[in-house]
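Quick question, first post here. What does this chain look like in 3D?
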Amino acid sequence: MITRVDYQLNRLQFLKKLVNLENSEGLEIGACDLPTVSKGVGKCEFADFRSAEEIVDLWNLPREAVMPVKYILQRDSKVHLQIDKKFDFVVLCHVIEHIPNVIGYILDLHNLLKPGGLIIIACPDKRITFDASRPSTTIEHLLDDYYNNRNYPSLEHILEFAKAASDDLRQKSIESPKEFYRWGCDNFESGLADAHCHVWTDEEFFTQIKYLIDGDIIEGLKIVDKQYNNGAYNEFLIALKSSE
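> Answer (accepted):
Ran it through. Tokens below.
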């Protein structure tokens, strides 16, 4: 049976193929209590939308297990404007699907990299999650979010995710569309909405990222490695390297 530690080790092995951790410094966003590079393994700092204390309270986690969040990020500002530092690698595990503007976010993280630096993304494969029934994100959707510089989940993102993630809300959407719509509006207007804004299979994600890089929309990065979902895990991984 695959455990959380197995995920951690698999991500670390993927990273170690590409980075010498002995002389590298990294940043992980959204590590919570499962860092890819833990203390003693390498040098890594941590960023999140919440403080470590807020994460402990929200998920009822042991305080000692949660990574120290050095950079508390604001949604309405670019990450590289909030962190005045360059890194050899930036890691995102089960973060990219929460990001409304995927193209803009990858370009933003590129600004955090030293020359030759890497962005490592681990993303859930929708086929092995509650998102399985949802339509996959299209290139047109990504381009629309990029054009509109979306930095917060749309009402569509919120409602679609809710129906997949919650049996109660899915039933509400069937029995009382008006109440479901009102719930979605309240969640959207709270300013605290969090959703899987986008969903993919491994091949879909890899193909879209290649298309965006080859088409000079995501500039200055190239794909240097990828790991397909092998069935045992519910995620796939990709490594993007800065050419600048």
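The longest strand covers residues 113-124.
DSSP finds nine helices and seven strands in the chain.
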